[in-house]
C-alpha cells in the first residue's frame, strides 16, 4: 500500500487510460471508487479489479453535477471510509477550429476538465487536512504547457488544471496533503486522441510518438510514492513544460500539429 493511503477515487474510469490508472492503484492494494457516466463499462472495469482480488466500487455519475459529487463521496465513505487519493482523470476534448466551436461545447469542456475537478477536490480536502494525509493527482496534458492550436479549449482547460495543481501544492505544503499533475502525450490506441482519429477517419502519421496506456498508471503511482510535482509521459517530455518553444518544435517535427489540424478540419465538415 502506498504510504497510509487506503482508498482512491478515479474519475473517467470506464475507458481510455482510466482503467489502467485504476488497475495500477489496485495492484498497490488500494480500494477503488470508480466514476464515469457509462454504467455498463464502469461496472466491467470494477468487476475486473474485484476478480483480481482487490476491491472496487462503481459509482455511475456525471461529475459536472454537484449533487452527484456529494452522492459519490457519501457512497465512497460508506463503502471504504475516508478517501485518501483523488485522481481527476475525466476529460472532454473537441479538436476543431475555435471559431467553429459551439458555445455549449466550450462550457461543457470547462465544466468537465476544470470546474468539476476543482469542486471534487474542494469537497474532499477538509477531510484530508483533518487526517493529515491525502494526495490529489490531476491528469492534464503536454498541451497545457505548449501553444496548441485546433484544440484550444482542451489545452486551455488543462492548463488551468495544471496551474490549479501547482497552486494547491504550494498552499498546503507541510500539511500531509499534496498534489501532482501528470502531463500526458498521446497513448497507443486509447485516449481522447485515439477516439478523435476513429471518429474522423484521420490516419495518425507514423512519426507521431505514443506511449503505452500502462504508463499513465505508473505515472500516478510515481506521483504518490515520490510526491513528484509534475510528471511527463513520456518522461523526457517534461522538458516541454520548461521550454514551450521546444514543445512547439516537437509538435511540428513529429506531425502532431498536422494531425490535430486534420482532425479539426474533418470535424468542421461533419
Question: Could you provide a short overview of the structure?
Answer:
This protein has a single domain (7-268), classed as NAD(P)-binding Rossmann-like Domain (Rossmann fold, 3-Layer(aba) Sandwich), CATH 3.40.50. The protein has 10 helices and 7 strands. It has helices at residues 18-27, 39-51, 66-80, 103-131, 152-171, 192-200, 214-226, 238-242, 244-254, 256-268; strands at 7-11, 31-36, 56-60, 85-88, 134-141, 177-184, 230-233.
Protein described:
This protein is α/β, with parallel strands linked by helices. The chain has one domain: Rossmann fold. The protein contains 10 helices and 7 strands. Strands 3-2-1-4-5-6-7 form a 7-stranded parallel beta sheet, with helices on both faces. Helix 4 (about 105-130) links the parallel strand 4 (about 85-90) and strand 5 (about 135-140). Helix 1 (about 20-25) crosses helix 7 (about 215-225) and helix 3 (about 65-80) runs parallel beside helix 4 (about 105-130). It is globular and about 50 Å long. The termini are far apart.
Amino acid at each position: 500500500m502506498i504510504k497510509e493511503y487506503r482508498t482512491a477515487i478515479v474519475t473517467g474510469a470506464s475507458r481510455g487510460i482510466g482503467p489502467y490508472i485504476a488497475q495500477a492503484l489496485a495492484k498497490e492494494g488500494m480500494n477503488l471508487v470508480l466514476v464515469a457516466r457509462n454504467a455498463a463499462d464502469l461496472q466491467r472495469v470494477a468487476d475486473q479489479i474485484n476478480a483480481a482480488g482487490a476491491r472496487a466500487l462503481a459509482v455511475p455519475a456525471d461529475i459536472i453535477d454537484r449533487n452527484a459529487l456529494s452522492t459519490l463521496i457519501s457512497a465512497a465513505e460508506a463503502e471504504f471510509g475516508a478517501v485518501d487519493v483523488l485522481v481527476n482523470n475525466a476529460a472532454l476534448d473537441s479538436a476543431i477550429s475555435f471559431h467553429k466551436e459551439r458555445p455549449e461545447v466550450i462550457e461543457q469542456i470547462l465544466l468537465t476538465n476544470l470546474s468539476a475537478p476543482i469542486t471534487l477536490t474542494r469537497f474532499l480536502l477538509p477531510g484530508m487536512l483533518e487526517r493529515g494525509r491525502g494526495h490529489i493527482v490531476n491528469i492534464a496534458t503536454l498541451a497545457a504547457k505548449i501553444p496548441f492550436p485546433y484544440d484550444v479549449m482542451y489545452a486551455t482547460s488543462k492548463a488551468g488544471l495544471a496551474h490549479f495543481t501547482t497552486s494547491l501544492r504550494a498552499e498546503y505544503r507541510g500539511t500531509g496533503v499534496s498534489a501532482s499533475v501528470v502531463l500526458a502525450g498521446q497513448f497507443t490506441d486509447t485516449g481522447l486522441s485515439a477516439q478523435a482519429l476513429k471518429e474522423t477517419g484521420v490516419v495518425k502519421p507514423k512519426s507521431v510518438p505514443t506511449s503505452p496506456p500502462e504508463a499513465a498508471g505508473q505515472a500516478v503511482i510515481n506521483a504518490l510514492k515520490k510526491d513528484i510535482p509534475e510528471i511527463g509521459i513520456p518522461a523526457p517530455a517534461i522538458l516541454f513544460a520548461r521550454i514551450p518553444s521546444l514543445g512547439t518544435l516537437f509538435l511540428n517535427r513529429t506531425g502532431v500539429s498536422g494531425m490535430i489540424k486534420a482532425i479539426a478540419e474533418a470535424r468542421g465538415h461533419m
